[in-house]
Each structure stands twice: as C-alpha cells, then as structure tokens.
Amino acid sequence: MKNDINIEVADWVNEKHLLMQVRTKVFIEEQHVPTELELDDQDATSTHIKAVISGGKVIGTARLLTDYSIGRMCVLKEYRNTGVGSQLLTFFIDLARSKRFTYVQLNAQLCALAFYQKFGFTQDTEVFKEAGIDHVHMVLPLKQ
C-alpha cells in the first residue's frame, strides 16, 4: 500500500473540511473526544499534512504546532497498520529537521507508545488524561 499513498502539506484554510472528516471519524466518533476539544485555535497556526490515496481521498492527517509538537495524528481505521502513520510521522520529523528544530514532542495515547518508541521518542512524564484518554508526553531529540 505504501506506494499508493502520498504525504503532502495541506492548506488548512482550503482543505479544513477534508482533514476534519478524518479527525471527526477517528477522534470524535471512534474515541468519543468532545467536538469542542477536537477543534481548537492551534489549527490556524499549525502546519498540516495529509495522507492521500489515488483518487484523492484523504485517509490520514497530522499537524505540527509552533511549539514543535506533533498532534492530531490519525489514520482512518481501514488504513491502519499499512505504514501510513509511519509515513506521516517521518514526514514531520524530516520537516522539523529541515527547519532546524532541535527536537519534536507529542502527547501519545498509551496504545501508541510502542509506535513512537520505534522512531526514538522517549517518555518523559507519568500517565495523564487528555480528552478522557490516557496519554504520556514524549520527546525526540533531532540531530542536525
């Protein structure tokens, strides 16, 4: 499947509805995150990316905030475990390096801890609740 997927920078203003379709399905419908917590004022100032399959369907998305945080990373259920999440994360790590960031950080759901650890992220907090879901904060130092 990897060859059929493109990871691209998304234009939040013009593609918000496409990105929010994915985020709504994953976070609001599957994980029961309240709508008012899912959409926030960070979207307007973040760099957004999208995973697109042939035909133009958006199947995944994520954002990079100005504080070097990766967030709202999600992939539609039927495309999980196909490498899409790895492609999204790799894109942002490479982008952060090109911008000379010294690190990236994120709040990982406990079920995704091993996924992020494969990329070298390390946990630096105890478990905490975010939108009613157990998370830990993780950091990845970036070598230039």
Explain what you see.
The chain has helices at residues 12-30, 35-38, 84-98, 113-118; strands at 5-10, 47-53, 58-64, 69-75, 103-109, 122-123, 128-130, 133-141. It has 144 residues and is an alpha+beta fold. Strands 1, 2, 3, 4, 5, 6, 7 and 8 form an eight-stranded mixed β-sheet that branches. 24% of the residues are buried.
Give short descriptive properties of this protein.
single chain, 144 residues, alpha+beta, eight-stranded mixed β-sheet, 4 helices, 8 strands, globular
- Number of helices, counting only DSSP H or I runs of 4 residues or more: 4
Mean pLDDT: 93
Question: What are the segments in which pLDDT stays under 50 over at least 5 consecutive residues?
Answer: none
The protein's oligomeric status is single chain
* Envelope shape: globular
Strand content: 25-35%
Q: Count the strands? A: 8
The helicity comes to: 25-40%
Instruction: Evaluate the radius of gyration.
Output: 14 Å
What structural category arises from helix and sheet content? alpha+beta
Largest sheet: 8 strands, mixed
- Tell me the span between the first and last alpha carbons: 31 Å
What order do the helices and strands follow?
A: EHHEEEHEHEEE
